[in-house]
Amino acid sequence: MPKITQLLFDCDNTLVLSEELAFVACAALSNELLEEKGVADRYTGPQLMADFVGQNFRGVVMGLQKKYGFTLDPKQVDDLVGQELGRVIATLKEKAQPCVGVMPVLEKLYKEKKYGLAVVSSSALSRVQASVEKVGQDKFFPPDHIFSAATSLPVPTTKPDPAIYLHACKVIGKEPGECVAVEDSKSGALSGVRAGIPVIGYVGSYEGEMKQREMNALLKDLGVKVIMDDWADFEKCLAEIEAL
Questions:
Q1: Is the pTM of this model over 0.70?
Q2: Which helix (H) or strand (E) holds 209?
Q3: Which of 47, 51, 170, 225 is the most exposed place for a label (fewest CB within 10 A)?
């Protein structure tokens, strides 16, 4: 296995506790769309998160169209994505917090300079930037090493498409095998695995031991190399991958 020289972190619920906040805003807009289309179903934030965690709002809109059998033209989709982004950023700037235990890990990695550090997210770049800035993590990442599947690519996409990971590797100048990704969701883990990047699956942001066990098994089935319950275990998890 090549020497690991680059770490690639998902943002939402891996670095920043942002998924629940974002999905509350997403659910409100999704329900407005469903009402407009004459669909009786409504989502709470947690329900929408259960169906679409790890995807950006463009992916949510595509999934709703498929599930409920309606069609939006590209401009309508773009308009909805823009509306959702504004609502979510306002919420994150007010309420976002770092994931438990991540700050000391980032501080140490940044000081040691052993690995390059980057963020690779499905979310829009402005949302990712708002999240990491709110919690004081922006100092750890070069501005041009924060990547968004919704913004950084010629054609917007979302995880589990591996395109954003492959793009990040190309821009940084690393082969996938020289990197390790840290992901919390099925979509994110699949994106990393499909890009050929060893993945650490982080389950510490899931509520309850039962849900964490469920995600542990799911992520392993997807090809995740190591499961991390707590950020305090990061060095040990990384060492396990480096020993493969």
A1: yes
A2: helix 209-221
A3: 170
Residue with tokens 């389950």: 203
Token readout for 124 is 């829009």
CA-to-CA separations, 200 to 12, 65, 193, in angstroms, rounded: 15, 32, 10
pLDDT in tens, 118-129: 999 999 999 999
For 27-84, the pLDDT digits (tens) are 999 999 999 999 999 999 999 988 888 788 999 999 999 999 999 999 999 999 999 9
Tokens representing 11?
């943002």
- Tell me the residue type at 56: N
d(CA 5, CA 53): 29
Structure tokens at 143: 């501005």
Which residues lie closer than 8 Å to 35 by C-beta, 6 or more apart?
Answer: none
- Cα angle 67, 70, 71 (rounded to 5 degrees) comes to 120
The SS3 call for residue 73 is coil
Range 77-86, long-range pairs (CB < 8 A, 24+ positions): 80/29, 80/33, 81/56, 81/57, 81/124, 81/150, 83/29, 84/25, 84/26, 84/29, 84/57, 85/57, 85/124, 85/126, 85/127
- The rounded Cα 127 to chain-centroid distance in angstroms is 11
Write down the residue that tokens 């498929």 correspond to: 66
